[in-house]
Specification:
The chain is α+β, with helices and mostly antiparallel strands. It contains 16 helices and 12 strands.
Length: 633
């Protein structure tokens, strides 16, 4: 019998040791396998094409415009391959105020070289031309400030990436979402707990079997851990010292300790990797969505910067165009006023008509002068560079020259690129994935609760702590607890409603994705049409300006007198020339904005400008991501 009892104790010890080892391995081993599959790799053809566009834009290499093989084609040729206007002639038509002096002098020298004036007429024409140049310079000097900054488009983009407040706000969101991923993963971390309780009682008793005084001290400590399957594992140690004035107490004080191992496993509600890791996956998708929102905001900010840059370029040249017109009208007015003072054949109606036209142009010039400063402030507010404080009066001089190079656009390829790279579509896909996870969670919560509990306890008792712990180590006293818990709300209306809501949200996300697809296709096609329209307008605008200039020169050469009808014709010719030049400025700005707008609508504007989001691939990094131009320091 003694041998049998000894064998039983050894078996119990082995069993207890196995339970303890299994619990320890479970508590400290990693069971959180990442179930999230990698998202689908973007179409390699579309990726190569977008990278190819960026290389083409940076290199301006005509040979680099070969379309990658395999891309769907629906080509639209914007021209026969020749620029719509010579850049040198465009520069003479619409110079920047900074270059107004040299351009107007170059025009004057060209007119003198092409003229057939006599020596006297030539000298008079040169003198009037010099006076006209002085008038133009006085006008354009009104937008000049003491502090000037030459700025290229690439420099404006780089400054915006570094300093834009709008971009900085969004760069924190991925880091915030990364902290939420860690927070969701932390639910599977092992938790250490400890509790101390002291209870002293002194109260009357109606029976000799109950003491009137007691002193109890309890220490409870252990570790518990939630596994990704839904299992909760815990291992704890409980130590109690109790003392009382009960006369029948065998041990007083008594020391009692327990070692407890517990497993709780749900089989329906709360079971499974998908359910228990759902919050981790949702947090990861939130970070992905925040990155897409960041890309969208960077894209929009860069587009706004480029649009503001070309708006400033346009506003400055409109000032020069109007200044040249005012100088021409002032020359005519001085001619009439001189003849009127000399008592020659000049009518007051001629002077009043000329002065009226001059005042109208003066009115327009004041507005255009204000538009230059408004454009500068708009660019400053987008860049937010500390060196370009809005409170300081700083003149920004755009140094980039607008492009007029012809393009061949692949309409189907552009639409395909838009459907691949637009951040809004990626956000919509993330919303669908999140809705799908929400359905899985709602389905699990709609199940009944069926939990299995297993608890194994080893006890030890003694007159002191040492003997109580020694008895615990002998594994002579054991407790086993097995329980099954079942729970199901009658009718289950709440969880079923939650499941229905999750399915509706998924349907809503799918419908939103379809709407986004339609919007992307429409916006890309409209951007192509706008770009084509702007390009097609460059040639006619330039030719109109040249024709108006030739017409004005012809009118001035063949008119013998400036009678009121002839004066009206000449003034109209001057204004027609200014309007043609304004239109040329407008279409050149529209074409360059249209180029950027097409990349914006395709979602490839960041690639177009070689911009990357540094830190975007570091999912566990809780630092702020930073957009920057590749190659910039």
């Amino acid at each position: 019998m003694k041998q049998m009892a000894k064998s039983t104790r050894q078996a119990r010890r082995w069993f207890a040791g196995g339970v303890i080892v299994t619990t320890a391995l479970t508590l400290f081993s990693g069971c959180e396998t990442d179930l999230r599959t990698d998202s689908a790799t973007p179409d390699p053809i579309g990726r190569r094409r977008a990278e190819h566009i960026a290389v083409t834009r940076l290199s301006q290499d005509d040979g680099a415009t070969t379309r990658p093989s395999g891309t769907p084609t629906d080509p639209i040729a914007l021209s026969d391959g020749t620029p719509p206007a010579p850049l040198a002639d465009v520069r003479l038509q619409i110079p920047d105020p900074l270059n107004a002096k040299e351009v107007t002098r170059e025009v004057l020298d060209r007119e003198l070289a092409e003229s057939t004036f006599t020596d006297g007429d030539r000298e008079r024409f040169r003198k009037e031309g010099e006076e006209r140049i002085d008038e133009i310079l006085k006008r354009v000097a009104q937008i000049k400030r003491d502090k000037q900054i030459n700025m290229s488009l690439n420099e404006a983009i780089r400054k915006a990436l570094e300093h834009s407040y709008l971009i900085q706000v969004q760069t924190y969101n991925p880091a915030i979402a990364a902290t939420q991923i860690v927070e969701a993963e932390a639910q599977f971390d092992a938790i250490y707990y400890a509790r101390f309780n002291y209870n002293k009682q002194d109260r009357p008793s109606s029976s000799q079997l109950t003491g009137t005084k007691s002193d109890t001290r309890l220490i409870d400590t252990g570790v518990r851990k939630l596994l990704s399957t839904g299992t909760t594992v815990s291992a704890g140690y409980n130590f109690t010292r109790s003392e009382s004035n009960l006369v029948f107490a065998t041990l007083n004080p008594a020391y009692f300790n327990q070692f407890t191992v517990e497993f709780r496993q749900p089989f329906l509600r709360g079971f499974g990797l998908d359910f228990n890791r759902a919050q981790i996956e949702l947090s990861r998708l939130d970070r992905h969505a925040s990155l897409e929102r960041l890309r969208r905001d960077v894209r929009e900010t860069i587009f706004n910067v480029e649009q503001a840059y070309w708006s400033l370029w346009q506003a400055r040249r409109r000032v020069t165009v109007t200044a040249r017109l005012i100088a021409d009208i002032q020359r005519i007015l001085r001619f009439f006023e001189g003849r009127l003072e000399a008592g020659m054949d000049v009518y007051k109606v001629q002077v009043n008509l000329t002065r009226s036209r001059l005042d109208q142009r003066e009115f327009a010039f004041v507005q255009q002068r204000s538009e230059v400063k408004n454009a500068e402030d708009a660019l400053k507010s987008l860049i937010n560079d500390p060196a370009l404080n809005l409170s300081q009066d700083i003149e920004i001089i755009p140094t980039d020259v607008p492009t007029m190079e012809p393009l061949v656009i692949d309409q189907l390829g552009e639409v395909t690129a838009g459907l691949t790279y637009r951040a809004e579509l990626n956000e919509a896909k993330v919303a669908i994935e999140q809705a799908q996870i929400g359905i899985g969670v709602a389905k699990n919560r709609a199940l009944p609760r069926l939990d299995l509990l297993f608890r194994y306890i080893v006890d030890g008792l003694g007159p002191n702590a040492d003997k109580a712990f020694s008895q615990l180590g002998e594994h002579d006293f054991h407790e086993y607890v097995v329980s099954v818990d079942f729970e199901w709300p009658i009718g289950n209306r709440g969880p079923e409603a939650a499941l229905r809501r999750a399915r509706l949200q998924q349907a809503q996300a799918i419908a939103s994705h379809k709407v986004t697809i339609e919007n992307v296709v429409t916006e890309v096609k409209r951007a192509i049409r706008d770009l084509q329209t702007s390009f097609d307008q460059i040639g006619p605008s330039y030719r109109a300006a040249k024709a108006s200039e030739d017409q004005l020169r012809a009118i001035q050469q063949r008119q013998e007198t400036r009678s009121p009808p002839n004066l009206e014709v000449e003034l109209n010719a001057h204004e027609a020339l200014a309007q043609a030049r304004d239109a040329l400025v407008q279409v050149l700005a529209n074409y360059n904005v249209g180029l950027v707008n097409l990349e914006r609508r395709k979602g490839t504007l960041l690639k177009y400008n070689n911009i990357i989001i540094q830190g975007a691939d570091e999912e566990d990094a809780m630092d702020r991501v930073t957009p920057r131009v590749v190659g910039s320091e």
